[in-house]
# Entry
Amino acid sequence: MGKLTRAEKNGFGRFLHDVTYVFADVFFLSMPVLAYVGTTDSIEGIGATHATIYGLLAMIVTATLIRGGWIRPLATETLGWVSLRPSLIALRVLYYNLVLVVAVYGGLAVAKAIGVGIVAVGIAAIVGAVSILSFPRLCDEFFARLQRG
# Structure
C-alpha cells in the first residue's frame, strides 16, 4: 500500500511539468501545418520537415521557459504563459499555424536564395522563438480590444 505525498517540485521537476503542458498546447493546436508538412515534404536533404521540427521545438522550449518564469515575454509586464481559455483557442490555432508556415517556408526560401540548406533550420528556430516571446503581448492586446468592445 502506498500513500500520497505532496511536495514542492524542484526546478527540473517544474521544467518537466511545464514542458508537457506547453507541448500539448503548441503541438496539438499546430496539427494542420504539421499534417500538411508531414504529407507533402520529401525526406531527402534538409527540407520542410527538418525546419518544422526545429521551429516547433523552439516554440515549445521558449513557451516552457516563459511559463516557468525563467525568461520574460516581450513587451508585456505580465509574467508567465498565457492561460488556456476557450476564447484563446482560435487565436492560438491561427497564430501557431501561421508562425510555423512563416518559419518553415520563409526559412526554406532564404536557404534556397543563399544556397545553404541548413539556414532554413536556424531561421525556423529563430522565428519560432521570437514569435512565442511575442505571443503574450498579442493576447494582452486581444483582451484589451475585447474589453473595449
In short: The first helix runs from residue 11 to 29. The mean pLDDT is 92. DSSP finds five helices and no strands in the chain. Residues 29 and 93 are 5 Å apart (CA to CA).
